Amino acid sequence: MHDENTRLTQQSAQTPRTIDGTWHGTVDFDVPVPIVLHIDGYATQLSIVADFPQLRSAGLPLRETSFIEGTLRFTTRSLGDYAGHLCADGSTIEGFFSKEARRYALTLHFGAAPPVAPARPQTPQAPFGYDVEHVHVDHAAANCRLAGTLTMPSGSAARAVVLLITGSGAMDRDETVFGHKPFWVLADHLSRHGYAVLRLDDRGVGESSGARVAITVADEADDMVVALDFLCRHRRLQGAPLGVVGHSMGGVIAMALAARQPDLAFIVTLGSPAGFLGDAFAERECAALQTSGADPDAVVRHGEFTRALYRELGNRAVDEPIDAAQIAALAERSGVTGNGTPPSEEWIARFNQPWFRSACRQDPAALLQHVRAPLLAINGSLDVQALAKPNLAAIRNVLAATGHADFETVELPGLNHLLQTCPTGAVYEYPAIEETFAPLALETVRAWLDRRFRPR
Predict the structure, then answer these.
(1) Residue 123: CB partners within 8 Å, gap ≥ 6?
(2) What is the reported pLDDT for 190?
(3) pLDDT tens across 302-319, in order?
(4) Which residues contact 392 (CB under 8 A, 6 or more apart)?
(5) HSE-CB of 227 using CA atoms within 13 angstroms
(6) What is the pTM of this model?
(7) Checking DSSP bridges between strand 196-200 and strand 161-165, what pairing results, if any?
(8) DSSP code for 177
């Protein structure tokens, strides 16, 4: 009897009397998505804040929350409606999300989730089988020094030299995102097959110096011009064919470099947009709204408004601010009402960033008209950030119209914006997928280069 009382006392100390506190679990939603809930209150006065650790998203308040007769309910935009029942000992809540006639299981466990490092099996491990040189590229005009890693074949001349160009945002040399290091994986693959590859920390990131507060797309392109000059002068690389590979927005910068430097030997774009970027940003937002289950009419209105807004931002000087009143006036002049929600301070701050303002005016199609270097454009069929079919078609149409002699566009099946093999392409899948860079995409890039550059 004494042992039984002790057991019950210990069990009571380990389990919550209410559901207040922190709970964690993993949603079986095409790919596993960890979730952490912070619950406060009781019955219909429940406050729930959600964290999605893999997405680096935290503090998201949930709607329509309640805990009545042992059943927890709440609603999310992306996952749908949840209903789960508290088990007898109070340690777990077992239930399902319901969305569009489908159900996704989620069992919540009381307490904080133990930290788990995501598996990234493709991250290269020593010995590498090629030479590795840590380099610094001085950009005197911008008062910065770019740090990076140059990998080169050992004991033989490089077939060609590749400069990797990262996508938008402050990226390190490996283009690290959610623990994935796609540029390291790509550089490793190419250098093992005879190519020299330079990857750099962006200005003001990692070991690179320089300020980012006022950086523009043109500044990023200038950094890459200095990097190309560095590679041309490198003692082991002189005379080797030199080209660029850019991912996402980095592909647009690659187009700009190829348009202004006709001596480039090649250009490869990975998941890059090919239309006016202000429109591309608007389309991306609309796609996210559709995925979240927003009303179709609201999606259309949001698209009309944001396209007009981003066109206006692209036409303004990068240092000419815009505020909420001006945005409202623009909506009225455009004859649209937006989505009915005034833009947040964070949203307006983004509109006033020099980089975003300069990006809104970029027109890849205009750049492509001046590109003469051999070009490979790759997009994943499930890319929701740069849709494959319209962007690849735009590239084909522009280059064919200019009489370009050597270009290829490839839609790789089942790959997302990061060129991972994926279920649907949704952004929330990126961190849950163990694969960093689909072997099909790696081989497509290498094979295309191999057909043009023989071993030296």
Answers:
(1) 181, 184, 185, 436
(2) 98
(3) 788 888 888 888 888 888
(4) 274, 377, 379, 409, 410, 411
(5) 33
(6) 0.83
(7) parallel
(8) B
